[in-house]
Design brief:
Blueprint (H helix, E strand, L loop, with lengths): L5 E2 L3 E4 L3 E4 L9 E9 L5 E8 L14 E6 L5 E3 L4 E2 L4 H18 L5 H33 L4 E5 L3 H5 L2 H10 L1 H15 L3 E4 L25 E3 L6 E3 H18 L1
Parallel strand pairs: 6-9, 9-10
Antiparallel strand pairs: 1-2, 2-3, 4-5, 6-7, 7-8, 11-12
Helix pairs in contact: 1-2, 2-5
The structure holds zinc ion.
C-alpha cells in the first residue's frame, strides 16, 4: 500500500491518505525501508520512518568524558554529581486545576450525549498535553546526559514500594521517574555507555560522599546533607549523585 511513498523532506504522500505534513525533516539520509503510522487515543497521527543509512552503528569514543552519577527525585527531575539540576516540569501540577475543572464538567454532561463526547475529548487532550510536556523534558535531559558521559551511575528505584507511600505517590507518578530512567538506559545502550544501577541496599542518600559516614536517619525534608563526622554540608541530591558516581567508577575500573 505504501509502495509509492515519496519523501521530499517536508511532505510525504501516502496513497489513500494524501499529503502529510512532516514536522521535522528526516535526520538520516538513505533508503527508506518502512513507514509506520500510528494513531493515538486523542486522534493524533504519528509517522515513524525507518531509514537504512548503509553504515552500522558506531560506538562513540567516550574517552576523556567523565563518569556521571545521577540522583533522580521529586524536587528536581535529576541532579548530577557536578551539582547540575534538571528541573521537573511538574506538568500535572500546572494543569491540575484545569484538568479537574474539565473533569467536573464532564461529570455533569449527559452520559454518551454529543456534549459528553466533546467534553471527553477535551479531557483527553489535556492528558495528552501533560504527557507531551513530561516526555519532552525527559528526552532533553537524557540526551544531554548520555552525550557527556563515559559511564552512568543511577539508583534502582523501587517505585512500587515508593508508591505505597501516599504522599510520595502523587509527586512520583507526576514526574514519572520510571519513564525517565528507561529513556536514559535505552539511549545509553545505543551509544554503548554502561549504566551501573546501585543495589537496593545502597544508601546513596544517607552516606556522606566525602568520608563515607552513613547516617541512621535522613528525613525527606532535609534538603542539605550535614555530616556529623567530617562536618561536610552539601546539597542532598548532589551528595547522593556523587555516591552513585563513585559506585559507577568502582564498577568500570574493576
Ligand atoms: Zn562526612
Amino acid at each position: 500500500m505504501l509502495g509509492s511513498l515519496r519523501v521530499d523532506g517536508k511532505r510525504i504522500k501516502l496513497p489513500k491518505i494524501g499529503w502529510v505534513k512532516m514536522f521535522q525533516e528526516l535526520r538520516s539520509e538513505g533508503k527508506i525501508l518502512r513507514v509506520t503510522l500510528s494513531k493515538t487515543e486523542t486522534h493524533r497521527w504519528f509517522g515513524s520512518i525507518t531509514v537504512d543509512t548503509g553504515t552500522p552503528n558506531v560506538r562513540r569514543d567516550t574517552r576523556g568524558l567523565p563518569v556521571v552519577g545521577i540522583d533522580v527525585g521529586i524536587n528536581s527531575l535529576a541532579t548530577l554529581d557536578t551539582g547540575k539540576h534538571y528541573d521537573n516540569p511538574r506538568p500535572v501540577k500546572r494543569y491540575e486545576r484545569k484538568l479537574a475543572r474539565e473533569q467536573r464538567k464532564l461529570s455533569r454532561k449527559v452520559f454518551l450525549s454529543n456534549n459528553w463526547y466533546k467534553q471527553k475529548e477535551r479531557v483527553a487532550k489535556l492528558h495528552y498535553k501533560i504527557a507531551c510536556i513530561r516526555n519532552d523534558a525527559h528526552h532533553q535531559a537524557t540526551t544531554e546526559i548520555v552525550n557527556m558521559a563515559s559511564a552512568i551511575g543511577i539508583e534502582t528505584l523501587s517505585i512500587t514500594n515508593m508508591l505505597k507511600n501516599r504522599k510520595l505517590a502523587k509527586a512520583l507518578s507526576d514526574s514519572a521517574l520510571g519513564g525517565f530512567l528507561s529513556k536514559l538506559k535505552s539511549k545509553a545502550e545505543v551509544l554503548g555507555i554502561p549504566v551501573i544501577e546501585a543495589p537496593h541496599f545502597f544508601a546513596s542518600s544517607k552516606t556522606c560522599s566525602k568520608c563515607g559516614y552513613v547516617k541512621e536517619e535522613l528525613s525527606l525534608s532535609e534538603r542539605i546533607f550535614h555530616c556529623e563526622f567530617c562536618y561536610t554540608s552539601i546539597d542532598r541530591d548532589q551528595n547522593a549523585a556523587i555516591n552513585l558516581k563513585n559506585l559507577a567508577v568502582g564498577y568500570t575500573e574493576s
